[in-house]
Design brief:
single chain, 540 residues, alpha+beta, Pdz3 Domain, 2-enoyl-CoA Hydratase, Chain A, domain 1, 5 domains, 6-stranded antiparallel sheet, 23 strands, 40% helix, globular
Length: 540
């Protein structure tokens, strides 16, 4: 019944901006009136006291939940957060923090920013802000950390079981789109591009010009872990390396005005410099526009692992009282015509999950030079490396914070003053496995989910007693297979552990410097750039 109430209201967000608005006007008005009267009667007559704002929030979520996950409602605070993310500057404590039950965890303090100056470290658990205990706050307690520049806030936190307090003086925080760049191997420029905000093109261009002045004759652009951002910035990044007037992406929609062709508008900075782009499974959206565009134009060699596969474009639409709807308006396509969208949210399986296109169904396309590339599942690199892959087990470890929590444990039990020769030992890895056991790390595979569903059906058919022994044996076999999976993915896990541990001691700057000398994807990129024959063969 709930679905029948909410689903028609979806039309409010869609048809108001379509050419079919007039023909659907009566139906839209009818459904709005039904919903309004229902909402009014429910609030006036329900047996218990209800909060109108809570009911409406649930109604909105119910209305949007069957669409794609990128079409979302933003309250006033979320609107402000989005503005900050796009602008690249804000006032606060200068740290990535995560709200968990009854506490806020410091994930990463930025070097020399307020949280860092106040002595906070990754893994610290903030339990009190000023006089407010986090456990007593129903809303996002992280808002209490924000304030005007120069204002102070006292926080109480736990570290390794001990409670302490510190005072943070809030200040301006700059979110760099290019947090690191450096000349390596005497003539190779290396640029880390972490997000696409309004500063992305200017920072990347400045880094590129500086590296060229230092003697860079080749370039590595690192987009690993970059979740995307502003579409126009992605076009402009490609424009740094290709001619004015090139088509970089085309967007298509049922709404005429959103059918757009995006071309480069400026003269390039360098359209000849040999270029390698690094991507992985967390490179998404704008990162895929850049890597896909450069690949289709045969302008760069792509190295790493298949990208995330987000081929949908969103646009914020203003609502009343400072709120917004971030709505998916179109799909984007690379210069060769590829859609890189991996999940089909409009066709779902029997469990309601979006369908992932099978690799056998991928369509072949041709780059400008005639190379074959495929659609349907992100950008496939020209050179794939296992070290860049995120398998289900490593994804589960990250989601469960197992990597993060072990790095905290490691930091407080090991001294380290030099990042250059650091290597996670076999003893360290075995200790990590013991840590997982001690903390009851568990994750459910898709296989287990399907068998669990089968067992429920067996209960309905009154067959569960007959198959219980076989089912338990099967689950035991799957548990053994999962233990083996951790060992099989040792390279992936060690790479993630190394990154998280090094950040604790040397911040991101130390981590990036370490990567230059040790990271397999960077080393492969250097190898390709130093071999003209191999580089040209890949692109031709």
């Amino acid at each position: 019944m709930k679905k029948r109430i909410f689903i028609p209201v979806i039309a409010i967000g869609i048809f108001f901006t379509t050419v079919s608005f007039k023909s659907d006007f009566f139906e839209i008005a009818k459904q709005i009136e039904i919903f309004t009267t229902l909402f009014k009667e429910l609030n006036m007559n329900y047996v218990d006291e209800v909060a109108p704002a809570t009911l409406m929030d649930k109604a909105i979520k119910g209305m949007l939940e069957d669409l794609d996950p990128y079409t979302v409602y933003w309250n006033e605070q979320q609107v402000e957060d989005a503005k900050i993310n796009n602008s690249g500057t804000y006032t606060g404590i200068g740290a990535i923090a995560q709200s968990r039950k009854d506490k806020i965890i410091i994930i990463e303090p930025y070097k020399d920013y307020p949280a860092d100056k106040a002595g906070l470290k990754a893994g610290d658990e903030i339990i009190k802000i000023g006089d407010v205990t986090i456990a007593n706050v129903e809303a996002d307690a992280g808002e209490l950390l924000k304030g005007t520049p120069g204002s102070t806030v006292e926080v109480t936190y736990k570290r390794q079981g001990k409670t302490a307090t510190t005072t943070i003086t809030r200040g301006a925080v700059e979110i760099k789109a290019v947090p690191f760049y450096k000349l390596i191997q005497n003539d190779i420029g290396y640029i880390v591009l972490s997000q696409f905000n309004r500063k992305t093109t200017s920072e990347t261009k400045a880094a590129l010009l500086d590296l060229k002045d230092q003697g860079a004759k080749k370039l590595i652009l690192d987009l690993r872990g970059n979740p995307g951002g502003l579409l126009t910035e992605a076009i402009n990044i490609v424009n740094l390396f290709v001619d004015k007037g090139e088509v970089i992406t085309t967007t298509k929609s049922v709404i005429e005005k959103y059918n757009q062709v995006y071309r480069t508008k400026f003269d390039p900075v360098d359209k000849e410099i040999p270029l390698v782009v690094l991507i992985n499974g967390r490179s998404a959206s704008a990162s895929e526009i850049v890597s896909g565009g450069l690949q289709d134009l045969d302008r760069a060699v792509i190295i790493g692992a298949r990208s995330f596969g987000k081929g949908l474009v969103q646009r914020p639409k203003k609502l009343t009282y400072g709120t917004q709807l971030k709505v998916t308006i179109s799909r984007y396509y690379t210069p060769s015509g590829r859609s890189i969208q991996a999940l089909d949210y409009w066709h779902r399986d029997e469990n309601g999950d979006p369908i992932r296109k099978d690799a056998k169904e991928y369509n072949a396309f041709k780059t400008r030079g005639g190379r074959t590339v495929y659609d349907g599942g992100g950008i496939l690199p020209d050179i794939e490396l296992k070290s860049a892959v995120f398998s289900p087990i490593t994804t589960a470890l990250l989601k469960d914070n197992a990597i993060f929590d072990y790095a905290t444990k490691y930091y407080y039990s090991h001294q380290m003053s030099d990042w250059q020769n650091f290597k996670l030992t076999e003893a360290d890895f075995q200790d990590f496995l013991k840590f997982l056991k001690a903390n009851n790390f568990e994750y459910e595979t898709e296989t287990e989910k399907k068998f669990a569903e089968g067992l429920k059906i067996a209960e309905v058919d009154d067959l569960n007693n007959e198959i219980a022994i076989s089912y338990n044996q099967l689950m035991a076999a799957i548990d053994k297979a999962k233990d083996k999976a951790i060992l099989d993915k040792k390279v992936e896990i060690e790479s993630l552990l190394t990154d998280e541990i090094l950040k604790r001691y040397f911040y991101r700057e130390g981590l990036y410097n370490y990567h230059i000398n040790h990271n397999p994807e960077i080393l492969e990129a250097v190898s390709v750039l130093n071999n003209d024959g191999r580089y040209n063969k890949i692109l031709k």
